[in-house]
């Protein structure tokens, strides 16, 4: 019973936001097919978690899920790692031969992590395998059949890599057929409190989070996504001597973003939120006008000082004044 590993199922993907739920819905659908899937998304969004959930829904949690980190795989050894080798294939090799990752994944899933970093020569071979569903082990004369589902993942922009000649275009098109983008945590801030609470529990903290902590967490942009949040919760648990999680124990980057010591002079003025109608030039002009007015107010209508504050010449300021303020007065 203790062998049951929940970390591989969809139920271990935590989140209540509609964005995440929609992503889960799509991946459940992908799980029903045997097609090759490409998972994209920033670092730490949960690509590997989704890959193993997709795997276990179709192939079953007991079938093999074999992960290959394409960034770490050494080019010279890559082929024998993936395809295996026959007896006496090269000196120093195991005399009995060795199965490759594709063979180890038979009946299950081969997870090609960081596929954007796969050496180009290997990309060509992978494409052939995806099309032909067979391959030759190194030093082998008999081909082996491919009997695994492939799931690839990357936090890179493969289209851009392909354009720059760093990723094979044909492989990119082959993989892009069924791709799923896992959204960054900042686009699903509703998930943050539940994720934070779950991680805290895992680290042994059962006391509720104070409101101030929740605000600090939801205000932060989490560039390292769920992994960064998990690490921050680990930190809180370490510092919570009385078992109470506190905002003051958050990592410096989160604290800096929450506020008290954030640069009050950096923003002279807030731009209005994006309007429902209107054009970008109109919106920009509106921001510019407010910015100039704020600089004039701050400098007591001193044009020279205001121009300096804005980083433009006095002449430019005069031009902008007649253009922008002139127009706004006729609104
Ligand atoms: N929705 C989620 N619910 C619970 N845990 C999550 C969720 N998303 C991510 N995690 C956890 O966050 C950590 C990072 O996730 P994962 O390794 O899957 O990210 P990744 O996208 O593969 O990152 P990288 O690009 O850096 O390899 C893992 O510990 C994972 O279990
Ligand atoms: Mg990963």
From TrEMBL:
Q: Which UniProt keywords apply?
A: ATP-binding, Nucleotide-binding, Transcription, Transcription regulation
SMART domains in the cross-refs: AAA (SM00382)
Gene3D superfamilies in alphabetical order: 1.10.8.60, Homeodomain-like (1.10.10.60), P-loop containing nucleotide triphosphate hydrolases (3.40.50.300)
Which spans of this chain does the record mark as coiled coil?
none
- Do the record's keywords include Transcription regulation? yes
What is any Pfam family matched here? HTH_8
The name under which this protein is listed is AAA family ATPase
According to its UniProt entry, this protein's organism is: Cohnella endophytica
């Amino acid at each position: 019973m203790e062998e049951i590993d929940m970390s591989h199922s969809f139920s271990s993907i935590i989140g209540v936001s509609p964005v995440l739920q929609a992503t889960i819905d799509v991946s459940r659908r992908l799980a029903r097919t045997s097609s090759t899937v490409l998972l994209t998304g920033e670092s730490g969004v949960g690509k590997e978690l989704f890959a193993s959930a997709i795997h276990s829904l179709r192939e079953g949690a007991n079938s093999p899920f074999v992960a290959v980190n394409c960034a770490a795989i050494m080019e010279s050894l890559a082929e024998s790692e993936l395809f295996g080798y026959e007896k006496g294939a090269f000196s120093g090799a195991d005399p009995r031969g060795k199965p490759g990752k594709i063979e180890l994944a038979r009946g299950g899933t081969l997870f090609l992590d960081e596929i954007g970093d796969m050496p180009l020569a290997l990309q060509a071979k992978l494409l052939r395998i995806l099309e032909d569903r067979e391959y030759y082990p190194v030093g082998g004369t008999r081909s082996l059949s491919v009997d695994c589902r492939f799931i690839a993942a990357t936090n890179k922009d493969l289209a851009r890599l392909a354009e720059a000649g760093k990723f094979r275009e044909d492989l990119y098109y082959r993989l892009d057929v069924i791709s799923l983008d896992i959204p960054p945590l900042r686009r699903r801030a509703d998930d943050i409190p539940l994720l934070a609470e779950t991680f805290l529990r895992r680290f042994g903290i059962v006391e509720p989070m104070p409101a101030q902590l929740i605000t600090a967490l939801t205000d932060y942009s989490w560039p390292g996504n769920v992994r960064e949040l998990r690490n921050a919760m680990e930190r809180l648990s370490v510092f919570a001597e009385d078992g109470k999680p506190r905002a003051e124990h958050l990592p410096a980057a989160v604290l800096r973003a929450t506020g008290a010591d954030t640069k009050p002079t950096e923003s002279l003025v807030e731009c209005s939120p994006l309007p429902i109608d209107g054009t970008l030039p109109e919106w920009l002009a509106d921001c510019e006008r407010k910015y100039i007015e704020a600089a004039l107010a701050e400098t007591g209508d001193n044009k020279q000082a205001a121009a300096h504050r804005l980083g433009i010449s006095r002449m430019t300021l005069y031009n902008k004044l007649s253009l922008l303020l002139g127009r706004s007065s006729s609104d």
